[in-house]
């Protein structure tokens, strides 16, 4: 049986993880992006079951109690977690599975999937990170403050990761990601 790979994609809120991933998935539709469950309310334009599974705190706590999550963490006042079954199935099918998660979740996955690849996306500077979060224009002042505070702690842990990529020039960051992902197995063998 072919075995796929698990790739963890982390980095502070607003660094551009989602934008980089969307671009990578457009170019490489064979990558499988895990859809997380969260108690955060949807942002305008976010679709349940596509961007996240938006669930109540009660539902999330049941998922935790029943062992349905591969990892989970609290971030800026909300729970986030990775549904276990779809990830395990996709890996068993030989796919490259990408988890876009925060630091605590990445640490949990490092224990359960030590063979996974862990990538950390860095901003060119803290000022630019704040500019990007504000430019996105989707978070309240309080949510922005919580994200910036958390960003400092996350950036301080960047050395724990297998690979650090600075998302300054977007195309260069994409090229660095492609080199990291597809150097492992030639693109033709990814399903
Ligand atoms: N541990 C964990 N973190 C997650 C999961 N899904 C998303 N996150 C992280 O939660 C943080 C907040 O995500 P979100 O509210 O979408 O805000 P954004 O990153 O600023 O767009 C980000 O660092 C995400 O990478 C998950 O399933 N598990
Ligand atoms: N290389 C880049 N240069 C300038 N702006 C960027 C770059 N990458 C992403 N952005 C912008 O930064 C903002 C935050 O990106 P997003 O993907 O939502 O971050 P994250 O998913 O890490 O929270 C978006 O407005 C996005 O267009």
TrEMBL record:
One MF term in the entry's GO annotations: ATP binding
Enzyme class: transferase
Enzyme Commission number: 2.7.4.8
PROSITE patterns membership: GUANYLATE_KINASE_1, GUANYLATE_KINASE_2
Entry-linked CDD domains: GMPK
Residues of the Guanylate kinase-like domain: 4-182
Known catalytic reactions: GMP + ATP = GDP + ADP
SMART domains tied to this protein: GuKc
Cell compartment(s), UniProt: Cytoplasm
Keywords, in A-Z order: ATP-binding, Cytoplasm, Kinase, Nucleotide-binding, Transferase
GO cellular component: cytosol
Residues bound to ATP: 11-18
Highest taxon in the source lineage: Bacteria
Function: Essential for recycling GMP and indirectly, cGMP.
Family indicated by similarity: Belongs to the guanylate kinase family.
Name used for this protein in its record: Guanylate kinase
Gene of this entry: gmk
């Amino acid at each position: 049986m072919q075995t796929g790979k698990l790739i963890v994609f982390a980095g502070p809120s607003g660094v551009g993880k989602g934008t980089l991933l969307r671009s990578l998935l457009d170019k490489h539709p064979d990558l499988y992006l895990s859809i997380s469950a969260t108690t955060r309310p949807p942002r305008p334009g976010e679709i349940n079951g596509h961007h996240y599974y938006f669930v109540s705190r009660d539902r999330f706590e049941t998922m935790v109690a029943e062992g349905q999550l591969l990892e989970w963490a609290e971030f800026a006042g909300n729970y986030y977690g990775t549904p276990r079954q779809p990830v395990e199935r996709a890996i068993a099918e030989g796919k490259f599975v990408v988890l876009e998660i925060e630091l605590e979740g990445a640490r949990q996955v490092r224990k359960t999937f030590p063979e996974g690849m862990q990538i950390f996306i860095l901003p060119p500077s803290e000022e630019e990170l704040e500019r990007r979060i504000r430019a996105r224009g989707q978070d309240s002042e309080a949510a922005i403050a919580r994200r910036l505070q958390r960003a400092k702690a996350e950036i301080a842990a960047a050395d724990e990761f297998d690979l650090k990529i600075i998302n300054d020039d977007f195309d260069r960051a994409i090229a660095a990601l492609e080199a990291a992902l597809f150097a492992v197995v030639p693109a033709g063998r990814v399903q």
